[in-house]
Amino acid sequence: MRKNILITGASSGLGEGMAREFAAKGCNLALCARRMEPMETLKAELEAAYPNIKVFIRELDVCNYPQVFDVFKAFKEDMGSLDRVIVNAGMGKGASLGKGYFEANRRTAETNFVGALAQCEAAMEIFRAQNSGHLVTMSSMSAVRGMPRAINIYAATKAGLRTLTEGIRADLLGTPIKASCILPGFILTAINKDLKKAPLRVDLETGCRALVKAIEREPAEAKVPAWPWVPVGLAMKFLPLRIVAKMT
Ligand SMILES: NC(=O)c1ccc[n+]([C@@H]2O[C@H](COP(=O)([O-])OP(=O)(O)OC[C@H]3O[C@@H](n4cnc5c(N)ncnc54)[C@H](OP(=O)(O)O)[C@@H]3O)[C@@H](O)[C@H]2O)c1
């Protein structure tokens, strides 16, 4: 069992939900995000409910790259080893290109891709030194095709992260270190609560239970929840762009 788990973006949504699921399984947690207050509440709640686990929390902005390396190293010191790192922090601001929203698009690109790259680098440094570990990246079903409007840059970053993870896996062939890329469908969180269309969305608890189950299988890649997203993903790949563009 992977006992010591680091999760970024743990102050809300999927990060918080996965922390609850892993705590219930007896895992120690290293949780980070920019907002400390929700993580302080979560730590108190989880340590009270599961006295046999330890929960460490630290402030982290994943766009502060030196801080990513420092925080991951500090968590490793706290816990002795890191068994799994979940690169989960992300955001979804953006708009169609050429309409004056470069700053929102750039911010999403930097957080979701360069920030994720920094997290993968920092995790891999630790895993290579340990010669063990499981890297998990949170991509998205939107990685399967180009998406219009607000999702355009978001989908592009998630496609980039998916390819990055496959490349890391290619580098790791024949080693004990594992890497998995997770493509969630819509799970209700702050990131999508205001979207006009969020087809087939599931509630947070259902979504996080399915995410943790998929992560524990340590697959190369998983679409979550598998039903209906495996067949939907296949359809998305081959449908004409004008139909895909109407999905969100
Ligand atoms: N919910 C879905 O349907 C869905 C589907 C596919 C993929 N995903 C992916 O799942 C991940 C989690 O999203 P969510 O749905 O749980 O959204 P959320 O509730 O908005 O959570 C996003 C988390 O990322 C953190 N974060 C954002 N920018 C950060 C930064 N610069 N540095 C550090 N932490 C940062 C936030 O914490 P602070 O604001 O406190 O820093 C928060 O904890 C994202 O990567 C998202 O793209 C979600």
UniProtKB/TrEMBL annotation:
Keywords: Oxidoreductase. It comes from the Bacteria. InterPro entries: SDR_fam. Signal peptide: none annotated. The keyword Oxidoreductase applies. It holds the Pfam family adh_short. Belongs to the short-chain dehydrogenases/reductases (SDR) family. This is SDR family oxidoreductase.
